[in-house]
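User: I'm writing a tutorial on reading structure tokens. Could you give me a worked example: one chain, its sequence, then its tokens, then a sentence or two explaining what the tokens reveal?
Assistant: Sure. Here is the example chain.
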Amino acid sequence: MVRDMATSCGQAIAVPTHVTQLASGPQPRVSALCVGIRDMARHVQAQSQLDLFAPPATSPPAVGAVAVPPAMVALARHLPCQIYLGTSSWTFPGWQGLVYDRVAPASVLARHGLSAYAQHPLLRTVCVDRTFYAPLPAADYATYAAAVPDDFRFVVKAHAWCTQPTRRDPSHASGRSHTPNAYFLHSGYATEHVVEPCLSGLGPKAGPILFQFSPLDVRTLGGPQHFAARLHAFLAALPYGPVYAVELRNHQLLSPAYREVLTDLGVCHCFNIHPSMPALREQMRVVPPEAMSTLLVRWMLHPGRRYDEAKTRYQPFDRIVDDDHDNRQTIASLCLVALAAGHTSFVIANNKAEGSAPCTVFRLAEDVVQAIAGATAL
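And here are its predicted structure tokens:
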């Protein structure tokens, strides 16, 4: 189930010591509701990444990569090649001077910013968020792949229909009505509309495929044990080869049964910093990171902030506003554990983590390099 994506750098790191399957019955035919994907896409056009490949009304100005200071270039050289750091999306005008060489609107960055983003030596991965809202064809993935160097990797979110028990009824005027989702944990749908186009378009530049579960009604699911059994059946039926990861937003689902599913199938837990989940160290206690073949961390939201509050407080996302030293140190320790085990690490930072995702990545890179230096000195 897991593809080996690590590149050996010849480093030996000593880490400090502190430092049943459920029968689900017949699944509906994938083709039965696939026409609804077009309706889904129309309802999410407001998302920042969604209309990337529609031709612009006028030819947009070019956007280039910022000139990276020599000290940051040197820092990137000391960062092991198995550690991929990046951000959630790349479409933020406030990143001028950090990632981009000029101010450009989000629409221009959505279409033309990826190649500039990928030139930064510390930004070697990015999380494609738009795929959560509507599936992408292989051709769109191929366009992404063509914009980045060979050693760049994409973290790809699976379409929400894979992980949501209900979906909005587009025929309802308020948009608040929900209908049962026949494609919840449907391996056939996930294979056809997520896995196959992703791998076909990205090729070797495909990183983890992430199944993000938004907060769920655990009782409706039948409890943590029943959820784990359904998850096992779903993941076991996916094509063998890619790195699959699961992100939870219910602390009750972070259970021993969930851990056993991941261990049995070689699937990764996405360690996430989000108010709905336990702290990283508690997640590490339930799901030991050294047992994961690939480390995936998503640093989503500052522990002391709500999403809307953080967005308002941190815009235009051009600097650190609320430093989160403790979580940064914990993530650096996670990377060190994965490195010692010979595993690849992906860390995705969000603007709402500290104020500016690129600045969070830059500080994290410093902490990881310092942690490695301290470990090798022992």
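What the tokens reveal: Residues 357-376 form the longest helix (20 residues). Residues 31-376 form a domain with the TIM Barrel fold (CATH 3.20.20.410).
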